[in-house]
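Researcher: Structure prediction, please.
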Amino acid sequence: MDNHFKRVKDIEGLDALVESHGERPLVIFKHSLTCPISSAAYDQMEQYEGGVALVEIQNARTLSGAIASRFGVTHESPQVIVLRKGQVVWNASHFKITAEAVAKAVREAGEAV
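Model: Predicted structure follows.
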């Protein structure tokens, strides 16, 4: 696994990441270990050059549900959610997940006032 992925398994780990990012955008990637579409999204996320909080759905079902509930984003897998200041600024699922789209969303979130 590439070193820009940070595996998150529980709510406490997610809370720590959200807090540590402050005003910087945080990328969360919800990934299914058994889905071929998610595998394609994983390949795209490997090409993304920034840090990624990786939530493996099969190993963190409670966390996956908590993310959907807390941030008001319907659960999908694969799914990328970009947060800034703990708020969702962008999300995408399935084939809409590309390294380029995530990079653009992060750039725009970083430029937001």
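Model: The chain has a mean pLDDT of 94.
Researcher: Thanks, that helps.
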